[in-house]
Amino acid sequence: MKNTQETIALPDFEVTLVQNDTQSSVNLSTLIQDSGLGLMLYFYPKDNTQGCSVQAVDFSQLKEQFENKGYQIIGVSRDSIKSHQNFITKKSLDIPLISDPDEKLCQHFDVIKEKMMYGKIHLGVVRSTFVFDNNGQMTASYRNVKAKEHAEKLLETL
After folding, report:
1. How far apart, in Å, are the Cα atoms of 18 and each of 69, 86, 132?
2. H helix runs in the chain, sequence order
3. Contact 138, 126 (CB under 8 A)
4. Phi/psi of residue 123, each to 5°?
5. 52 given a catalytic annotation
6. Could you tell me if 147 and 8 are in contact, meaning their C-beta atoms sit under 8 angstroms apart?
7. Of 97, 154, 93, 112, nearest to 129 (Cα)?
8. Which of 32, 40, 41, 52 is catalytic?
9. What's the mean pLDDT when you consider all of the chain?
10. How confident is the model at residue 3 (pLDDT cuts 50, 70, 90)?
């Protein structure tokens, strides 16, 4: 897991946050201000796939420890609101997810890249995590991370 030296500002537009059976429109900057906590946005390719499930469950299980260190965790994928609701229920997730089907947030963070699958090139989300302090300043970014143990390693580095 390598921390890259880049700076990306939190976007100033509304995103759709899904938590349990509810959904709401939020601005990430406002979310930080209202909570007083920093923010960890982790981007993943697809709900209910093996690696993405491992990562989401790990983050969910470690949620309280991240909050004790001053960070809230939010997962982001291009999946629909309904898909997120099913994923949260099926995996008993305790973290909110952002539905980004128009790829606006994914493009802002430049996480859509060419990937090879079954010998064919396609565009997909590169598993990445971005950490912001409680003032909304990026403090770390991790690109092309492995799903397994990513949450634990990230918790150790904070």
Report:
1. 23, 11, 20
2. 28-35, 50-61, 63-68, 81-91, 104-108, 150-157
3. no
4. -90, 130
5. yes
6. no
7. 154
8. 52
9. 91
10. low
Beta bridge partners, 113, equal 124
Question: In a 3-state reduction of DSSP, which class is residue 141?
Answer: strand
Return d(Cα 106, Cα 95) in angstroms, integer.
19
Nearest of 77, 83, 152, 106 to residue 13 by alpha carbon: 106
Please name which of 59, 70, 52 lies closest in space to residue 132, comparing C-alpha atoms: 70
Residues recorded for the chain? 158
Residue whose pair of structure tokens reads 């093996």 in the numeric block: 50
pLDDT tens-digit profile of 47-91? 999 999 999 999 999 999 999 999 999 999 999 999 999 999 999
SS (H, E, C) 89-133: HHHCCCCCEEECCCCHHHHHCCCEEEEEECCEEEEEECCEEEEEC
Contact predicate 91/58, CB 8 Å: no
The rounded distance, in Å, linking the Cα atoms of 73 and 76 is 10
State pTM to two decimals. 0.92
- Residue 128 and residue 109 in contact, taking contact as beta carbons nearer than 8 Å: yes
